[in-house]
Amino acid sequence: MKILVLHRVPYPKIDYHRGIDHDAHDVTYFGRREALDGIPSRLRCTRVERPGERTPFEEATAWLESEPQSFDRVISMSEYELIDAARLRERLGVRGASVDQVMLVRDKVLMKEAVQRAGVRVPRFLPVTEFLDAGGRAAWSGATVLKPHRGASSVDVVVFGSAAEAYAAIAGRRSGVTSIDQDGSGLTDFEVEEFVDGPVLHFDGLVENGRVLTLGASEYVGTCLDYARGVPMGSFQFACTDDARDWVGRVLDAVRIHDGSFHLEAIVDGDGPVFLEIGNRVGGADVVDTHEMATGVHLPSGELRILLGESIADSLPEVPEDRSWYGWFVHPGHHLSGRAFAGFDGADAIRSGPEIITWHELPVGAPLPDHITYGAHETALAGIVATNSPEQTRRWMVRLFESLTLRTSEPAVTAAAAMAA
Question: CATH classification of 200-409, choosing from 1.10.357.10, 3.40.1010.20, 3.30.470.20, 3.40.50.10840?
Answer without folding.
Answer: 3.30.470.20
